[in-house]
């Protein structure tokens, strides 16, 4: 017998041998990861899942999503890159880092990120916001995506200088003409977007 809603011991899936080496003090962590690891791999408890205070994901589910970049780095660093591509693992693996050091998987700050890595972060966010093939969200119109990115640059997520360049060089327009649906391409107030940046993050990592 089981009540309609319950948290039971068998709902908790323990890590066992699958425990990933992502904690900063894990001796098996040779990649410099610095991520909080949930106590369990998964928790299927009904009360537990329904009582999450923020969003719809549990910490275990959020870690499972974020773990994709850990696997990306581990996989890419095993490949025999030629000299001119040797930084591919870092560029691909650091696009979820933030200028203020609150990103993942290594909590790197802006000063520790190369220009290509910062560019990748801007490109990744813009593509994610405007993509029409994501089953969990609707594609944002151009103006809304750029407003969200302006706040992210102001608040220490993205590089403000690169975001300004992204705006001033109209990179978003070239991308929109080629990849966005016509109904997504609306008017963009560049001056208003610049104004969002003025009283925020100073861009120093």
UniProtKB/TrEMBL annotation:
Q: Which residues cross the membrane?
A: none
Q: What is this protein called?
A: HD domain-containing protein
From which domain of life does this come?
Answer: Bacteria
Please name the source species.
Marinobacterium weihaiense
* HD-GYP domain: residues covered: 1-182
InterPro entries xref list? HD/PDEase_dom, HD_GYP_dom
Q: Which chain positions lie within coiled-coil regions?
A: none
Recorded hits in PANTHER family, A to Z, give: CYCLIC DI-GMP PHOSPHODIESTERASE PA4108 (PTHR43155:SF2), CYCLIC DI-GMP PHOSPHODIESTERASE PA4108-RELATED (PTHR43155)
Q: Name one Pfam family in it.
A: HD_5
